[in-house]
Write a structure and sequence with these properties.
Family: Belongs to the nitrite and sulfite reductase 4Fe-4S domain family.
Pathway: Nitrogen metabolism; nitrate reduction (assimilation)
Distance between the termini: 37 Å
Number of strands: 38
Oligomer: single chain
Cofactor: FAD; [2Fe-2S] cluster; [4Fe-4S] cluster; siroheme
Strand content: 15-25%
Pfam families: Fer2_BFD, NIR_SIR, NIR_SIR_ferr, Pyr_redox_2, Rubredoxin_C
Helix content: 25-40%
InterPro entries: BFD-like_2Fe2S-bd_dom, BFD-like_2Fe2S-bd_dom_sf, FAD/NAD-bd_sf, FAD/NAD-binding_dom, FAD/NAD-linked_Rdtase_dimer_sf, NasD-like, NiRdtase/SiRdtase_haem-b_fer, Nit/Sulf_reduc_fer-like_dom_sf
Amino acid sequence: MNGNREKLVVIGNGMAGISTVEQILKLTSRYDITVFGTEPYPNYNRIMLSYVLEGSKTMDDIVLNDLHWYEDNGITLHTGTTVSRIDADTREVVTNEGTRVPYDKVIIATGSSSFILPVPGHDKEGVVGFRDIADCNMMLEAAKQYKKAAVIGGGLLGLEAAKGLVQLGMDVTVVHLMQDLMERQLDPQASAMLKAELERQGIRFKMGAQTTELIGGERVEGLRFADDTVLDADFVVMAVGIKPNTLVARESGMEVNRGIVVDDYMQTSLEGVYSVGECTEHRGVCYGLVAPLFEQGMILAKHICGVETAPYEGSVVSTKLKISGVDVFSTGEFLDSPDHTVISHKDDWKRTYKKILLRDNIMVGAVLFGDVTDSAELQKLIKQKTEMTDELYASLMGTGCGGHKKVASVETMAEDEIVCGCNGVTKGTIVNAITNQGLSSVDEIKACTGATRSCGGCKPVVEQILQYVLGDNFTSGAKQGICGCTSLSRDEIVAGIKQKGLQTTKEVMNVLGWSQPEGCSKCRPAINYYLGMIAPDTHEDEKESRFVNERMNANIQKDGTYTVVPRMYGGVTTPEELKRIADISVKYDVKAVKVTGGQRLDLIGVKKEDLPQVWAELDMPSGYAYAKSLRTVKTCVGSQFCRFGTQDSMAMGALLERKFERLDLPAKFKMAVNGCPRNCAESCTKDIGIVGNDGGWELFIGGNGGIKARLADSLCKVKTDAELIELCGAIIQYYRETGNYLERTSEWVERMGLEQIRSVVVDNLEERKALMERIEFALNHVEDPWKKVLRNEEGQTKLFQGIEVSARP
């Protein structure tokens, strides 16, 4: 530590405290900073806990400031350490272990904790809150063993918990005391629309229910309500509210009401000690939303750095949230009263709702549901107590409610208006970064300012700010790389690999100038794929750059077991293979055997350590159900058995599957072959769909039956089997060479254009032949991954008998 600098101690390693530290670091270097955090992690984003719970993000994904950030900024971090009190006489902070750290100034940012209803049975096993990563981990474990969950509380945290548990396969009922969900943020109309949408997503509700007891033995078995009805549940999440963590302030003799009492500069009753965030009470109000906490932190940072600033006078509370994919927003007053003039519009078809409240023609509140485009503008107008005019009415209630979707008016946003609520990034910060540092992409803005790095809900506004600042240069200047580690596009990376003869991901990152030397989970798998596509004969596959399913050659399930899918060419198998599958399923206690949509059998629930033996005893090829590769070729019975069949679809499907299996592709790939135009094998929704007719075959490409459903486009008609196989190979290789990593053919066809693809693989016979030669070369260097593992005993022990594997590259 530098002895000439003042000592600043921050008690609390959460979002409010570290956001304040970030602001301080921008303004001065006068402080030696020490941070104490009770949890064993660096600063992470609590707003994103529901994403960890549902499995779409990991703990690493939601970390806002990793350990290197603390080191780089000279901050001493104590994780897993709780501060018990502040000794004002000696000017020292004292931990539970008795460690004393001297201070000149202290910032208390201890946040809040879950409020647990003091009903009988609240301390039973299986009852948790939802406030931190430890709660999240308990919920993840519970979902592996138990099936019926109750979430007490219909606010934001309760709904996020319910969403996550439903995603984990639990039967979830939200129990709420009031008749409206999120009654502190939404009016009854928006609440009813939200409830209807969440019910469509599988969440049940019991409204107007007062929990009086949690019943059961040592473990909770259900909830009893005031009307003496009972709800069965073997897991209960309490999400009924939060209470400020004020213990350190009370033990230190500070003034505390509901929260730690502060003045307009966040000063507590103890000299040199400040408080910020959910633990704080300002003018009788404790704020539980993130935007006010960032506003407090910015004013506190300026104040203790000696920078002139206006006092904190409280916040106009606004809520902008995405709940299970549904956008909601409210600001100011949101419940109708007799002295309000109400302007509203509800669209049942688009599931949108907008309401603006006026008092004496002054805008005082608003609620949005489904479409929150106007949220920034409404927040500003209400904060400024703007009078409603005909022009404003036309702007706010015109095209925004029925016709064309408007874009947010970033030009009129104030410089200090928060754009990224997750990370407290203002419009002014983004504009300055673009202007002063020459930023030209959203990824560069994310890396520089933190905007969009969490939930991503602010990305459209950030893009609009970028366009607003760059003006005519936006189109050329806003080129984004494949990830935030590089500004290079897919084509530039492939060209660089070829020109410079690069052979490993580390070489690519080093030579082509990655900003993050280790890359990330987006670019490492992509580079590994591009290297293998370019040099299939020399490239050594980098398992560490693949996702868990590809590393383990099986699909991991939510309980940690795996699904094994053996190859059945064209969906055809033999009685001997079926018997073998049945015997192995019984022997290895397979939980279920499922017929897939691609006419295969899933063996669900195989233990990791049993995988190699299951593969060996099956003695069948891998079905590649886990890979970015050819998954299945679905077939109808065709001319062999069907009275309508004109072509032998089963034989052609098996031939194509044997021909192109095991080859790495940008994304998963599915095919189907129909023996006649009746389309029983559903060729119209496959990456390549083939339909037999009296004169030969018709070829379709770019279909998708998934989230972004798309009907395939007709590419051409051919007369012979040989020409069909050649065209399929050319299409696959052209897709391999021009597709972006993780880009499905449905997106690839739209990006490339059907005519461009047709001109290369259909019309240009010389190019088609060249594509076939390259794919044949690649096919000569692939082998069955299950057999490869079985030959490598050392690798088997390390991967299948070792420690648990990470789910990310």
